[in-house]
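Recall that a protein's primary structure is simply its ordered list of amino acids. Everything else, from secondary elements to tertiary packing, is in principle encoded there. The following example makes that idea concrete.
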Amino acid sequence: MRCPFCGKEDTQVKDSRASDDGATIRRRRLCTSCGSRFTTFERIQLRDLSVIKRNGKKIPFDRDKLMKSMLMALRKRQINDDDIDRAANGIVRQLESSGDSDVQSKLIGELVMNALAEIDNVAYIRYASVYRNFREAKDFEKFVEKEIND
């Protein structure tokens, strides 16, 4: 592992721990060249995923992009970071275990909406407003009414 401070590749693992959900391993490292300490995280990756966008373009799946979209919807909401990380890990596991390396962006959007609905209703509606392209206040009203009645 390369040191983020000096760029040398000679680092030592000082401590390893599984995360709360067991899906990641947290490692504390020490650079033997400059003496800096830093943390790395390892995640299990079952397969390389590609996202097929609505326009047909194929791009590599990016977990960080998934997290950013969820965090944007959850902005200024009092939600535990571990809950968000667990939800993102759950989405990634569902995608990886689906058996297909190519995933439609629509499926990812639906999975994110489902996860946000479990975490926070406001974030769920925020995400839906962008994902479903709400244009007017009426669109919000229709969506909320439909969700309440379902």
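Residues 11-42 form one domain. The longest strand covers residues 11-18.
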